[in-house]
Amino acid sequence: MGEKNNVKSWVKAVVLVVVIIALVLLSRWLGLGKRLAELQSWIKSIGFWGPAVFVIIYAGTTVAAVPGSAMSIIAGSIFGSVVGLISVSIGSTLGASLAFLAARYFARDAIVQWLGKKEKFRKLDDLTEKHGAIIVAITRLVPLFPFTLLNYGFGLTKVPFKTYVFWSWLCMLPGTVLYVIGSDAVTKAITMGRIPWVLVGILILAIILIVFLVRYAKSMLKEENTHH
What does the alpha-carbon distance between residue 163 and residue 167 come to, in Å, rounded to a whole number? Predict the structure, then answer.
């Protein structure tokens, strides 16, 4: 019975890896990077439904492990700061959640069986279970690892799904602000021929907030480690 479960776990893990690789190769074969300008024009043309379609596309590209920075910039230039920020926030959180769930239910069992006896893996697994919120917050605020890699990586740990979703959404916001409002600011500066100082001020505040949050999160993690 145990061997049968082991085989099932590995089969699910292999299927997940094959699907991810296929999605990445498909996105490259289709030339998604080159088609971003066409995508931008098309989303503009569908009017009211544009943000909803954008959210679905963003979530899909996230699951396909396609970097979302270009999509975030496009959102700012198409929708402006407010709608763009909301669209990117929903799309990135939805995509990150789907990738997490895919890794959790298709690959975690196999990884645990493979690395479960290794002390370093057990410590990392326990750390994410006890301090999941802080670890998710730090890795989202500081780009130590690629965004798409983290989505699948956290699914392999013990961090609770609700904790992962909330702190991912919250701590991706400052970076989303930088991309979306930055893009909107540049677009307005070009089209209007003047610097949109309000947006520039928001960008500066976002940078200051990120620096503060990173320092606070690191201090919290260090304090937690000294208590355990």
Answer: 6
The first and second tokens of residue 65, run together, are: 């492990």
Can you give the pLDDT at residue 95?
A: 93
Three state DSSP letters for the chain: CHHHHHHHHHHHHHHHHHHHHHHHHHHHHCCCCCCHHHHHHHHHHCHHHHHHHHHHHHHHHHHCCCCCHHHHHHHHHHHCHHHHHHHHHHHHHHHHHHHHHHHHHHCHHHHHHHHCCCHHHHHHHHHHHHCHHHHHHHHHHCCCCCHHHHHHHHHCCCCCHHHHHHHHHHHHHHHHHHHHHHHHHHHHHHHHCCCCHHHHHHHHHHHHHHHHHHHHHHHHHHHHHHHC
Q: What is the dihedral of CA 107, 138, 144, 102, to 10 degrees?
A: 20
Domain boundaries, the chain: 2-227
Tell me what pLDDT residue 7 has.
52
What mean pLDDT is predicted for residues 83-105? 92
